[in-house]
Amino acid sequence: MPNFKNSLMRRVSVSTFILGALVGLQSPAFAGAGHSGGHNDGASEIGAPGEISDVRRTIRITMEDNFYDKEKIIVRGGETVRFVIENKGEFVHEFNIGTAAMHAGHQEEMMMMMEHGALEADKINMDMMEMDMGNGMTMKHDDPNSVLLEPGKSADVIWTFPKKAELEFACNVPGHYESGMVGKVRLQ
C-alpha cells in the first residue's frame, strides 16, 4: 500500500500543479493580494488582526482534501472571532480570509511557491519560505488572516471583521480553490 499511496500523491500533486497552472494562465493579477505586503494588504476592506481579549466566539474549521467542513460562516460586522484550523487531509492546505480578487492574486503566488520548491503537495519547505521569489517578495505565510498547514497540523487565526464586505475563506494551494475549497463569509 505505501507504494500506491506515494504514486497517488505524486499523480495528485502533478494533476493539481497542472490544473493550477492552466487556471493561473487565465486569471488576471490583482494588486494587493501578495506576500510582499501580506495577505491582508486590503485590511480596511477585509478587517484586521484581532486581540484574544476581544474574542467572544471560537469557530472550529477542519480542512480535508479538498474541502472545508463548513461551506459558510456567519459573523457580525465588527466581531472578533478565534478560528481554530485543523488540517486532517493528506495534503498541505490553507485557510485564508480575503476577497475573491485577493485570492485570485494569491493563487499565482502559491503556484510560484510550488515552482520554486517551497511548497509540495504534502510538505512545506520552511527553509525556502524566506527565499526571494522576485521583487523582494517572500513566501513566509505569517500574515494574521491566513494559515498554511501541513497534514496533521493546526493553528489559530484571530480576526476582527469589518462592518461590510464580500469575503470568503479559501485554500489557494494550486488547484484547491478551483476544486471547491472555498467558503463564504456572511456578515450580519
From TrEMBL:
Residues 67-187 form the Blue (type 1) copper domain. The keyword Iron does not apply. Residues 1-31 form the signal peptide. Pfam families: Copper-bind. One of its GO terms (molecular function) is electron transfer activity. Keywords: Copper, Metal-binding, Signal. This is Copper-binding protein. It comes from Thalassospira xiamenensis.
